[in-house]
């Protein structure tokens, strides 16, 4: 009998997988999970009005596809190194399923958080969940918890099924160009939606810009200068393609305002000094303001709502936490304080040394001001500060003309020299030794701060000399008899005060960067020093109630209290562009842009074994979401 060699046919599924096959599987597996996440993310649309208009609908479709495809791509990237180092199918499948479960469950969880609080899942929420606040954050019935549990079990089973189906597809389609085609299409979509957003941002097209709030971890592309350079946007003359959407996801104010103009209204003047820290309102550093303050209300424990210009000015005019900045900018929503001044026919004189479109105050605070003065003349802060002084004095002269006396006026001066440590080269120095130039590279924990601090105080002294003729003119023209004058700073300025190598601002929320002077001349009110804690949140709502005749509860349109008649709340919510901090009497809870939490003492050192207060943080979350529609 002939002998036959015994053979065994190996099925392709039983072969040891190659790295290229596993990489293809990872790409297709997470692309499928991106589509699942996209379907779940449609729940975000229940929290906002569905977009209308061809441009907006196009952007929303592209943004959803591009954003969630890019998030899925991150999952595939996480598998790249494990596949190279340990290309075992069972291990890679298991790891991929775990990452996919975290991805899908994270998006699902985020949709519930967003629907309730109007912000996305982060480390702070995680801390609250792990700290036992889950039932307070998610107000679910037992039935809903059961459904959620069943959803998790079903999702796990589905991921195992999906992983095998994708693997069969990979084995059945070797050397096919499907992946390259899909990858190119997705990249095109991702690129197109970013360019469309950048165009909308440059041209004040709010139906598009307001859409990004409900996409988690979305980081939009902006290119204002690029569009301006090519004549496709013009901030000086107003955006040529501007379109302000009348719909809104904001609930600001929460009730329609009822305001009745006074028969004899007060004029209002805001004088704001950039980077003016609280301990430099002195007879030596600011002699003119100090003298003026002797006949005014002086608030000795006053805080900005921020450690930076963008959110410091925001809190001053809106009376809201700076965490609302992105939403107000996306929808071009002006401050109600300014809106009421316009309604009551105030003549507006807005004079800022720095450009009002960077940060975008022209599209937030002053969004409804016609013919807004956007920038000042001069090549340096000192020159621009001199320019706004001169132009404001001319503005005051115009207000004294007979035809303008019938209307009250509002003046806003925003001086910038202390921010740049600037003053004229021949300016007499009050504080010496003083740095001739600032070398930021040389700053460290051992650097002698005295000459640097003296230069800063000399710049404050210089601004005080510019403010002097304004105060003198208000007095000589007898305008102080019917003009409220508010003098304050947008934030503080630190000079390594806590020996932690912090310089300037926008780096921490200590009093050196957040506490500012505050002086108010208010006709009819006796001069006094007020020692209770106050903040920028309190200023505009107080004026709206007492001067503009708004009868609403202050909390219908602000987070502040009445400066003179109410006591401060249990905490103060501070912020900058990406972070926020909760200041209590004896500690500071700082939350970064990723939700990571630090609990610090008044010297900005970590408090050992400090615990996050669930009750406090839930209250903070409510305040940060109160002015969104639900």
Walk me through the structure:
By secondary structure, this protein is of the alpha/beta class. The chain has two domains: 13-229, no CATH class; 267-568, Alkaline Phosphatase, subunit A. It is 42% helix and 10% strand. The protein contains 18 helices and 15 strands. The protein has helices at residues 19-41, 54-78, 80-85, 89-117, 123-137, 142-172, 178-202, 206-209, 224-229, 287-293, 309-318, 325-331, 336-343, 381-399, 449-476, 511-514, 539-546, 614-625, and strands at 267-273, 297-299, 302-303, 347-352, 409-415, 483-489, 494-495, 503-504, 518-521, 528-530, 534-535, 572-575, 580-583, 588-591, 597-600. The strands form four sheets. It has a seven-stranded mixed beta sheet with strand order 4-5-1-6-9-2-10, with helices on one face. Strand 12 (572-575) and strand 13 (580-583) form a beta hairpin. Helix 1 (19-41) packs antiparallel against helix 2, helix 1 (19-41) runs parallel beside helix 4 (89-117) and helix 1 runs antiparallel to helix 6 (142-172). It is elongated and about 95 Å long. The model is unreliable at 1-13 and 237-241 (pLDDT under 50).
């Amino acid at each position: 009998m002939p002998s036959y060699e015994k053979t065994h046919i190996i099925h392709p599924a039983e072969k040891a997988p190659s790295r290229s096959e596993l990489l293809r599987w990872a790409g297709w597996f997470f692309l499928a999970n991106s589509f699942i996440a996209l379907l779940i993310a449609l729940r975000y649309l229940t929290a906002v009005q569905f977009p209308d208009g061809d441009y907006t609908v196009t952007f929303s479709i592209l943004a959803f596809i591009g954003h969630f495809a890019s998030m899925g791509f991150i999952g595939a990237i996480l598998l790249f190194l494990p596949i190279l180092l340990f290309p075992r199918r069972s291990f890679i499948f298991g790891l991929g399923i775990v990452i996919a479960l975290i991805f899908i469950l994270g998006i699902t969880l985020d949709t519930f958080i967003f629907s309730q609080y109007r912000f996305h899942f982060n480390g702070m929420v995680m801390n609250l969940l792990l700290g036992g606040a889950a039932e307070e954050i998610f107000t679910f019935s037992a039935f809903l918890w059961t459904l959620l549990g069943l959803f998790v079990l079903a999702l796990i089973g589905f991921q195992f099924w999906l992983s095998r189906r994708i693997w069969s597809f990979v084995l059945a389609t070797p050397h096919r160009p499907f992946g390259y085609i899909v990858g190119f299409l997705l990249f095109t979509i991702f690129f197109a939606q970013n360019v469309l957003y950048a165009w909308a941002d440059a041209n004040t097209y709010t139906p598009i810009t307001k859409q990004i709030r409900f996409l988690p971890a979305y980081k939009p592309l902006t290119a204002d200068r690029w569009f301006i350079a090519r004549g496709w946007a013009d901030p000086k003359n107003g955006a040529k393609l501007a379109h302000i959407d009348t719909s809104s996801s904001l609930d600001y104010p929460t009730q329609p305002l009822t305001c009745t103009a006074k028969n004899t209204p007060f004029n209002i003047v805001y004088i704001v000094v950039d980077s003016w820290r609280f301990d430099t309102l002195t007879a030596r550093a600011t002699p003119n303001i100090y003298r003026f303050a002797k006949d005014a209300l002086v608030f000795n424990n006053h805080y900005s709502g921020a450690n930076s210009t963008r959110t410091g000015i925001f809190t001053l005019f809106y009376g809201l936490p700076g965490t609302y900045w992105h939403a107000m900018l996306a929808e071009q929503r002006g401050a109600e304080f300014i809106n009421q001044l316009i309604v009551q026919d105030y003549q507006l004189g807005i004079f800022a040394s720095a450009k009002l479109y960077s940060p975008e105050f022209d599209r937030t605070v002053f969004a409804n001001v016609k013919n807004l003065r956007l920038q000042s003349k001069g090549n340096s802060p000192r020159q621009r500060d001199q320019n706004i002084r001169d132009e404001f004095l001319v503005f005051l002269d115009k207000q004294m003309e007979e035809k303008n006396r019938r209307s009250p006026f509002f003046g806003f001066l925003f001086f910038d020299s202390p921010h740049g440590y600037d003053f004229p080269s021949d300016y007499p120095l009050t504080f010496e030794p003083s740095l001739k130039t600032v070398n930021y590279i040389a700053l460290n924990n051992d650097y002698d701060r005295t000459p640097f601090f003296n230069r800063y105080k000399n710049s404050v002294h210089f601004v005080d000399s510019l403010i002097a003729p304004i105060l003198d003119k208000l007095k000589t023209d007898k305008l102080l008899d019917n003009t409220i004058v508010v003098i304050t700073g947008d934030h503080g300025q630190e000079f390594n005060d806590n020996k932690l190598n912090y310089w300037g601002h926008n780096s921490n929320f200590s009093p050196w960067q957040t506490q500012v002077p505050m002086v108010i001349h208010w006709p009819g009110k006796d001069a006094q020093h007020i020692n209770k804690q106050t903040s920028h949140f309190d200023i505009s709502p107080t004026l709206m109630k007492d001067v503009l005749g708004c009868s609403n509860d202050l909390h219908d349109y602000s987070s502040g209290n009445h400066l003179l008649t109410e006591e401060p709340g249990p905490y103060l919510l501070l912020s900058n562009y990406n972070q926020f901090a909760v200041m209590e009497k004896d500690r500071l809870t700082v939350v970064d842009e990723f939700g990571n939490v630090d609990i610090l003492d008044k010297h900005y050192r970590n408090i050992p074994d400090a615990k996050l207060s669930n009750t406090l943080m839930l209250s903070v979350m409510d305040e940060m979401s109160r002015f969104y529609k639900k």
